[in-house]
Amino acid sequence: MNNEEIYYAQFLINHSHGRLDCNYKTAARALRPTAQYGLSEQDGEFVFGEYQDESGLPPPTKEEILNELEFQQRFCAYWQHFYDRYQSYPDITVLFNLLWDAIDKDYIKAKKSDFYKVIKHINEQYPCPEGEPPSRTNK
Description:
Blueprint: H1 3-12, E1 13-14, E2 19-20, H2 24-31, E3 35-42, E4 45-53, H3 62-88, H4 92-104, H5 114-125
Antiparallel strand pairs: 1-2, 3-4
Helix pairs in contact: 2-3, 4-5
């Protein structure tokens, strides 16, 4: 996961659900991050109330919102494991202490260390999906 993907995942984190979350509102917010508006969905159409955007862009179109939402859904499906791992890893201080102990004890093979075992367990619990991560151009 690169910095851009991490930033986007942080944008989609729904702390109350403990998951990456996407919907037509997150899609609109991603498309017009500086805009202020109310947004509702009525009969398959998106209705913007009191729309103002300091960048001067008009409200996103239905097609733009649906395209962004489709990307967000693929993004969330692919990267959820990363967020699950983040939620499950021990505190960074604990991890660094485990790593220090492994180095200090002069382990020849790091796979014998508690640091490795803790990370391996979590990574196996939340495996990486197959294939390439989604981009706005691959479907």
